[in-house]
Amino acid sequence: MKAKPLKRIIAALERLSPPPMDQQDFSLADAFVWESEPDALRPVAQVNKVDIALLVGIDRARDILMANTRQFAAGLPANNVLLWGVRGMGKSSLVKSVHAQIPDVKLIEIQREDLPSIGRLMNHLRGAPLRFILFCDDLSFDQDDSHYKSLKAVLDGGIEGRPDNVVFYATSNRRHLMPRDMIENERQKGINPSEAVEEKVSLSDRFGLWLGFHPCSQDQYLAMVSGYCDAFGLNISLEQQRAEAIEWQQTRGARSGRVAWQYVTDLAGRRGVKLS
Fold it and tell me: Which CATH class is domain 26-213?
């Protein structure tokens, strides 16, 4: 190949590749959002979080995640964590609340759609003199979704290994990060699941810690409501609070921390009280 055509090809490839990321100033914030095209870490001035004392009914998960995060912050071995289970029971709230207790660690949120760029993010963080939690909320994969391969490489570490200063936390409604009916359908096609499904199912095995979140009892739900009302100074009798909260969850057809917060938001609005 002649020199000029080769130079044109090289120039075209350079134009297609993302521009190099500027040196990040991590003193700007305690949390960042990863954005690709172009690559950037956007500082988050104020994280949307709940006081950890208000997270009711998830004590075991709270203690385990806190211990793992403290180990990581201290430079000790720590696991990647998958928080899975029913909607609205505080999975993502717990990650943000635990991070708020350990400010020495930076929190970086990455969207599922940006997982193919996670290798570039890891390379940028590898040499930084700080410790980072990469956080992906509501993580799941469909049948034709190949983004899981990028995440698998991160969890496995690849040939370079996962940086010692990075750990990965994810939340999902699915323990195996994929629809159960898809797994069952594939299993019915033969004695063993297809290799593709087996590969996706095994992704969750690469998280060292699984923390399950299950439906709350009515007592736990009412304790959540009571805790929020006390924290924000909503004066309402326990009898009226209980009656309204139960009616609220009946109209929603579910009990959870999210439903409790939605009731309290409505109550605060009716009472003219701000929740900030």
Answer: alpha beta
